[in-house]
Amino acid sequence: MLENLTTRLASVIKNIRGQARLTEDNIQDALREVRMALLEADVALPVVKDFINDVKQKALGVEVLQSLTPGQAFIGVVHNELTALMGTTHVGINLATTPPAIILMAGLQGSGKTTSSGKLAKLLTEQMKKKVLLVSCDVYRPAAIEQLKTLASQLGVDFFPSTGEQKPLDIALAAQDYAKKHYHDVLIVDTAGRLGIDEVMMNEISELHRSLNPVETLFVVDAMQGQDAINTARAFNDTLPLTGIILTKLDGDSRGGAALSVRHVTGKPIKFIGVGEKLTGLEAFHPERMASRVLGMGDVLSLIEDAQRNVDHAEAARFADKIKKGKGFDLEDFKAQIQQMRKMGGISALMDKLPGAAGAAIPAGADEKAVNRIEGIINAMTPQERSKPEILKASRKRRIAAGAGVSVQEVNRLLKQFEQAQKMMKMMSKGGLSKMMRGMKG
Ligand code: GDP
């Protein structure tokens, strides 16, 4: 599934040149690649345009965490935006109404409506312990009624019989009545489809919708149909108040574009995906998981997550290693830690998370400005002063204060903070991270 898209996106990662920040320049080619990949995967053009814009806006200025390459950081942005494009969070089936909760299935002939009705009945029965009744209103195709009946008996789910001589609405209302009397929790109404959008079909299903007032109106669409799937989705969405989408045949060699477009075009959540002809082939749709699948880079994505989560630990470990090797913690390291904190985002948000020395040394509530001043002071020192702060006597301090545009008191305060940080590093080298964390809390 979606292999071409995945392959193309994989090449993006390698092609962003190494820089600490994502810029207009270094992501330009990557954006072009993503655009091509999406168009090839049959994602609708307006969707591609919006998506590329979003990715660009979000990517510009993103700092590249130390353990990542710029390509990986860019993929992180694409992953987030893909997830958002597909709806961000999983939306489950809604059965919150007086029983029977009616689920109306809509879609073109061959989209997988009948199969999906059966799959859904299985899922609701087995996973949600619901008592389900299935009914078919496809009076034009007796074979379709038979097909649903067969599925129902395979599943051991109740089936409400109908014939080609009845009217669809009469069938549905009789089934609703039957479900009420027999305490069914859910009634799944399969409807007639056509090969294309057709006014008679639309009127019929609109009438069913008005009379049944279903809690779910699910639009079933075949992912293999590419751009056509999107046009059909739009037409159904304009006519019926859809509550969700079932995207079928994602197991086949669909190019996958529909999965990426359909939410954006209709504004309705994809609730399930069909991943096989068997009755077990229905899965709850999770935008985040689908985005990972599309990118096909599980390893990179977890790397990004780890980098974001562990950058603080990694940094602490690096310093611990340095101290173990007998090297002192100097002002240069202190500055590096402060810069590291910057990279990780807002200072105050990180104050309590950072087990590094800088976390302990910078007073709680320190803002960006305070950090800028600290950096300014360290920058005004000579390399020798940074590596041996003990040589900083009054005259040197005055020179540094003047160079950094601060008072001598501020230089002294910084040196105090640095001493605290040094102590912290010593503690860490003796007792490891956990001891240091305890020290920080106390
Ligand atoms: P309907 O006309 O909308 O009721 O469509 P059907 O339920 O009869 O399905 C049409 C064809 O698509 C059948 O051959 C199904 O087995 C097949 N089908 C339905 N859903 C899926 C799916 O998720 N994956 C695959 N591979 N085939 C499916």
Automatic annotation (TrEMBL):
Is GTP-binding among this UniProt entry's keywords?
yes
UniProt key word Metal-binding:
no
- Catalytic activity annotation: GTP + H2O = GDP + phosphate + H(+)
PROSITE patterns per UniProt: SRP54 (PS00300)
GO BP: SRP-dependent cotranslational protein targeting to membrane
Domain-related comment: Composed of three domains: the N-terminal N domain, which is responsible for interactions with the ribosome, the central G domain, which binds GTP, and the C-terminal M domain, which binds the RNA and the signal sequence of the RNC.
Quaternary assembly: Part of the signal recognition particle protein translocation system, which is composed of SRP and FtsY. SRP is a ribonucleoprotein composed of Ffh and a 4.5S RNA molecule.
Where does the record say this protein resides? Cytoplasm
Q: Which UniProt keywords apply?
A: Cytoplasm, GTP-binding, Hydrolase, Nucleotide-binding, Ribonucleoprotein, RNA-binding, Signal recognition particle
Domain of life the protein comes from: Bacteria
CDD domains the UniProt entry points to: SRP_G
EC top class, as a word: hydrolase
Residues that bind GTP, according to the entry? 107-114, 190-194, 248-251
Its function, per the record, reads:
Involved in targeting and insertion of nascent membrane proteins into the cytoplasmic membrane. Binds to the hydrophobic signal sequence of the ribosome-nascent chain (RNC) as it emerges from the ribosomes. The SRP-RNC complex is then targeted to the cytoplasmic membrane where it interacts with the SRP receptor FtsY. Interaction with FtsY leads to the transfer of the RNC complex to the Sec translocase for insertion into the membrane, the hydrolysis of GTP by both Ffh and FtsY, and the dissociation of the SRP-FtsY complex into the individual components.
InterPro entries cross-referenced by the UniProt entry: AAA+_ATPase, P-loop_NTPase, Signal_recog_part_SRP54_M_sf, Signal_recog_particl_SRP54_hlx, Signal_recog_particle_SRP54_M, SRP, SRP54, SRP54_GTPase_dom
Question: Could you state a single Gene Ontology molecular function term?
Answer: GTP binding
GO terms for cellular component: signal recognition particle
Q: What is its EC number?
A: 3.6.5.4
Principal location: cytoplasm
- Its name, as the record gives it, is Signal recognition particle protein
Tell me where in this chain the SRP54-type proteins GTP-binding domain is found: 269-282
What family does the database annotate?
Belongs to the GTP-binding SRP family. SRP54 subfamily.
